[in-house]
């Protein structure tokens, strides 16, 4: 069991972020008699999935659905199916972004060459 501060440090997020995840229903920490949040290994696993999902660009709604699916189906099959579906969609988005960035790079390289050529030619004037 970890406190909210220990959990925040473990995952390099703020305590405010963890409270927000609880507020939107992603986390359900236990509480001490003094009302201090305590995170079980199960809750820590959820936070790990949330942080990983955010890293890879999934929305909180998508992450919430994937995380909560495991609670509904303990085999993990539905969670895996949905994760694969969202993952494939995200990979397509990333591939499109890479193509756009490669096109931008190519255009900028062409402009760079053109500007260098203009600069060299302007010195002779």
Q: How would you explain this protein's 3D organization?
A:
This protein has 125 residues and is mainly alpha-helical. It is 74% helix and 6% strand. The chain contains five helices and three strands; from the N terminus they run βααββααα. It has a three-stranded antiparallel beta sheet with strand order 1-3-2. A hairpin with a 5-residue loop joins strand 2 (30-31) and strand 3 (37-39). Helix 1 (4-11) crosses helix 2, helix 3 runs antiparallel to helix 4 and helix 4 (60-72) packs antiparallel against helix 5.
What strand order characterises the main sheet?
1-3-2
* Helix amount: over 70%
Shape: elongated
**Chain-averaged pLDDT:** 93
Structural class: mainly alpha
**How big is the Rg?**
23 Å
Let me know the number of strands.
Answer: 3
- What's the SSE pattern? EHHEEHHH
Distance between the termini: 75 Å
For the report, how would you describe the main beta sheet? 3 strands, antiparallel
């Amino acid at each position: 069991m970890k406190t909210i501060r220990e959990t925040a440090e473990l995952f390099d997020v703020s305590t405010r972020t963890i409270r927000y995840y609880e507020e939107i229903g992603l986390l359900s920490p236990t509480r001490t008699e003094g009302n201090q949040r305590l995170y079980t290994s199960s809750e820590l696993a959820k936070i790990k999935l949330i942080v990983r999902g955010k890293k890879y660009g999934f929305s909180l709604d998508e992450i919430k659905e994937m995380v909560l699916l495991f609670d509904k189906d303990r085999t993990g099959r539905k969670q895996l199916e949905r994760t694969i579906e969202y993952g494939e969609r995200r990979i397509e988005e990333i591939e499109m972004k890479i193509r756009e960035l490669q096109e931008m790079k190519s255009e900028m390289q062409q402009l760079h060459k053109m500007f260098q050529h203009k600069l060299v030619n302007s010195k002779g004037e």
